[in-house]
Amino acid sequence: MASDFFRQVYRVVSMIPAGQVATYGQIAAYVGNPRAARTVGWALHGLPAGSGVPWHRVINAQGAISTSREGSRAAQQRAMLEEEGVLFDERGRTDLARYGWKGLR
DNA sequence: ATAATGACTGGGG
DNA sequence: ACCCCAGCCATTA
After folding, report:
1. Cα separation, A23 vs A37, whole angstroms
2. Would you say the C-beta of A75 is within 7 Å of strand B?
3. How many CB atoms lie within 10 A of CB A72?
4. According to a count of CB atoms within 10 Å of the terminal CB, is the N or C end of chain A lower?
5. Along the 105 residues of chain A, how does pLDDT read in single tens digits?
6. CB atoms within 10 A of CB A76
7. CB of A31 within 8 A of CB of A9?
8. Which nucleotide is nearest to A2 (CA to C1')?
9. Start-to-end CA span in chain A (Å)
10. What is the pTM of this model?
C-alpha cells in the first residue's frame, strides 16, 4: 500500500482549494497517468478519515459523487462540499465549469 | 505470474 | 437524457 502513486494522488488532492472540485481523471492526469482514474478512486477508497486529504473534493467527470455508488460517505461528502460553497442541482450534480479546479497554473 | 476488482471515462445505441 | 459496453490502471488474492 501507500505506493508512490498513492502519495502522488494524495498530494494533488491536497492541493485542491476549498470551494472547488476536481475529477478523478484530472487527478490521474496530474500524477502522470490520465488513464488511471480508477486507480485514483482506489487510492481515495483506502484513505483513512482524518488523514488531512480533502477527498470530498474529488468527484467523477459528470460532476456527481460516485463514492462507492451509495452509502453514508456520499451524503457526508455532499454536505461538506455544500458547506464550502459547492452547490448541487436536483440531480446531485455540480457545475464543473464553475467549481472545477483549473489546476495550479 | 495470472485473474479479479473497483469512489472512472468515453463512445455508441 | 438514459442504458450498455469496452478500454485502462494499480492493488490484492
Report:
1. 8
2. no
3. 9
4. C
5. 668 999 999 999 999 999 999 999 999 999 999 999 999 999 999 888 789 999 999 999 999 999 876 667 888 899 999 999 999 999 899 999 999 999 886
6. 14
7. yes
8. C11
9. 30
10. 0.93
